Amino acid sequence: MAAMSYDSLDGKIWYDGDLVAWKDAQVHVLTHGLHYGSCVFEGVRAYGGEIFKLEEHTARLHASARILDFEIPFSEDEINAACNEVLRVQGLTDAYLRPVAWRGSEMMGVSAQNNTIHLAIAAWQWPSYFDPAQRLKGIRLDVAEYRRPDPATAPCLAKAAGLYMICTLSKHRAEKRGYADAMMFDWQGRVAECTGANIFFIKDGRIHTPIADCFLDGITRRTAIDLAKRRGFEVIERRIQPEELEGFEQCFITGTAAEVTPVSEIGPYSFIVGDMTKTLMQDYVDEVQPRAGAGSVAASA
């Protein structure tokens, strides 16, 4: 990604119901969300001025907050309208949006029932998540040391900030070792996901992907499954053991940032960027582009 400091971009951020100057969208150092991870967020993409599957992302944001035992003080319709407003005000058509909700600073300690719940939404130009040349030939994945936690030990079905700590550590380690990202196992040692994307494998014309019960069932994951089924591809959601990696022919990952990205290597295992993967990559591009005749949010301002 291009180097930039996210606290010094230009424009406006929607913050608790108002549009404020980017530099003024601040939180206190004693904010509960910073100290205790009581924060949920979404990553959303806009293509051609239209926000892709915004309603699904906003519904998940509310669901994540409820899992963390707080209610966002804005309805889903209000959040959707705010996201479109931010995209319009920023004058962007192809962009990344980050809605984020967190507990404020009224109580400092583990207990924080009376803290104000804040919500902010920012949008900015989004570069490719992976090096474009590397992405076309398939990215290389390390195997992470950390595992996705047991659902009995963490709110793993929430898109909660605290759950990404081990993802950051795993991605840093992978990048230091020359990889683009890392694949993580679950708490029982089965294939789970990458640090910020779901993972799929192809063998004998069938697509296999881990059951999403200890990590997010990504919105892009569900989109890719739907696209595959439209093509008549068989999709099998099941437990995948590490020793099976050697037998898969193709591999790709999915996510709002990653979109559909082929994988050429996971540790000692190699994969080809085959026709099924290329087809789904193109199908996803076609799916996210605004339909002919649809109005552009930015253009309609």
Rg measurement, Å: 19 Å
What would the CATH topology of the largest domain be?
A: D-amino Acid Aminotransferase, Chain A, domain 2
- Major sheet description: 9 strands, mixed
Quaternary structure annotation: single chain
Q: What is the architecture of the largest domain at the second tier of CATH?
A: Alpha-Beta Barrel
Please state the overall shape, judged from the principal axes of the Cα atoms.
globular
CATH superfamily of the largest domain: D-amino Acid Aminotransferase, subunit A, domain 2
Instruction: Note the beta-strand portion.
Output: 25-35%
The tally of strands reads 16
Q: Please, how many domains? A: 2
Give start-end ranges of low-pLDDT stretches: 293-301
Structural class: alpha+beta
Our measurement of the CA-to-CA distance between the termini, rounded to an integer number of angstroms, reads 29 Å
Rounded mean pLDDT score = 93
CATH class of the largest domain: Alpha Beta
Percent helix range: 25-40%
Task: Write structural notes for this entry.
The structure is a single chain. α6 links the parallel β12 and β13. α2 (54-67) packs across α3 (76-90). With 301 residues, the chain is an alpha+beta fold. The longest helix is centred in the first third of the chain and has 15 residues, at 76-90. It folds into two domains: 12-125, D-amino Acid Aminotransferase, Chain A, domain 1 (2-Layer Sandwich), CATH 3.30.470; 132-288, D-amino Acid Aminotransferase, Chain A, domain 2, CATH 3.20.10.10. The protein contains seven helices and 16 strands. The strands form two sheets. Strands 8, 9, 10, 11, 12, 13, 14, 15 and 16 form a nine-stranded mixed β-sheet that branches. The model is unreliable at 293-301 (pLDDT under 50).
